[in-house]
Specification:
By secondary structure, this protein is an alpha/beta fold. 46% of the residues lie in helices and 13% in strands. The protein is built from 10 helices and 8 strands. The N and C termini lie far apart (38 Å).
Length: 264
Amino acid sequence: MGKRLAIAGSGAIACGLAATAAHHGPVLLLARSSSSAERARAAVEKTLARLHAEVDPEHVQVVTDHEALAEATFVVEAVIEDFDVKAALLAELDAVVEEDTILASTTSSLSVERLALASGRPQRFLGLHVFNPVTKMQLVELIFPREASEDTRRRALALCEAFEKTPVEVPDVPGFVVNRLLFPYLFGAVRLLEETGMDAADIDTCMRLGAGHPMGPLALLDLVGLDVAEAIGQTIGEPVPARLQELVAEAALGRKSGRGFHEY
């Protein structure tokens, strides 16, 4: 399966998936431009080096031409959390790949049913919600549209098994399970910061040491990306705190920009 797996995207989730897949065989990574391709290549190599993985970086072939994905049997879309962007890319992929190729989306909050229709192949489509950092996080939320075939379900489970992940089938509701429950808590931490003027590090320390969380809520928002968090909040109907919106407007998006609720 790994020899014919492709990932469309060049961000953190796409590169994390590529590094994970590289442990099991060659994988194609589709980037939008040559500059995106160079950044993706560097990100994958850095991830593999950090994991001390005995994996040939050449297992990840970074391409910029959609046609290079023509022979892929399983293609995972992993681009920005925007329905129109994802729908357009899925339609492009549908026109390139074979009839029995499965398309999947790493959406964290959008309607999988709508994306399945946009893909042009709802019977061979699913939501494959992985978590950042992909190489470490074990859960995969699987979301199947009504028309998904049994073969699609079987192959999706097989992919998760190959990646040594734990799949859980969840309903196609905004935010699925994890984000539906997580983001009210994360945004609550931002509101507490707004109301009290507490230091972000102190709030995070309280939740790490007092609740046993591996990461504080504000640091987690920075890891997710504040722009992504804002989009998820809007999708699931959870009011986005003013301070988070202000940071997004300042292009302070968290770890990826060097500043968010914390400095990096």
